[in-house]
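In this section we walk through a basic example: taking a raw amino acid sequence and producing a predicted 3D structure, encoded as discrete structure tokens. The instruction is simple. Fold the sequence below.
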Amino acid sequence: MAEVRVAKSAGFCYGVERAVKLAEETAREKGGCAMLGSIIHNVHVVAELEALGARQVDSVEEVRPGETVIIRSHGEGRAVYDQLRARGVEILDATCPNVTRIHQIVAQAEQAGRQPVIVGTPDHPEVTAIAGWCSHPVVVSGAEELEKWLVQDEKRRNLPLTFVSQTTSTRKIWDDCVKKAKKECTNAEFFDTICGATSKRQEEAHRLAQQCSLMVVIGDGKSSNTKRLAEICKEVCPDVRLIERAADLEPSALSQANVVGITAGASTPAWIIKEVYDKMSEENM
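The resulting token sequence is shown next.
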């Protein structure tokens, strides 16, 4: 019979919990509201919120006159706020405070004549939002992309560069970029903006995965931090399963495992983690 262990830091982080709570309270108090984009990367949580009257819209144009609009935890660019204000709607900002800090860093850097460089996944909503606080942002996915950008124009190595990171990036990606920039750039400053809770979750998942023959990572397939967790676990565990719900777990998953670990991305609520744990415990009896 396999031993099942759950990572202590699995599940909602502060920023996500704050955003979901704000959406719940607003929907109940106002009889409904609009969430601009997916407030968090979890379809099950979004469905629960929609049932309360918090409808999801994918563009500013879909917002109704006089409607209360919630900015998702990933944040939005400056232009989106301007567009919403122009429509005269009430804005409730659920942007994670850690992400808001990055908006301030890149905006201030650009005002000071520096070039913001964002280390992250280019099409991720958090990165898109950060870029929306700059006139000419540079986004690189890692050290290799940074190298390509630098060699395109030799003058770039002497530019005043300000580096920030997507909050859910891995420590290795950030450290590799910092190492390359320190070696090749003459005027670079660095703001390590990886979320502390993210780092803790990744480190804990890595330690747990080392002890397991099977590692289960719970989270939405679109979630960046969930995919990062799975990648980190795969470095040290021979069998890693990324699932969204207990129903996605194959009944035979536990058959060859001695120790099974469970972790979950920051957008996974406690009830889904419990659902997976309970199913694994039942099949393990």
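Looking at the output, two observations stand out. The chain has ten helices and twelve strands. The chain has a mean pLDDT of 93. In the next section we compare this with other chains.
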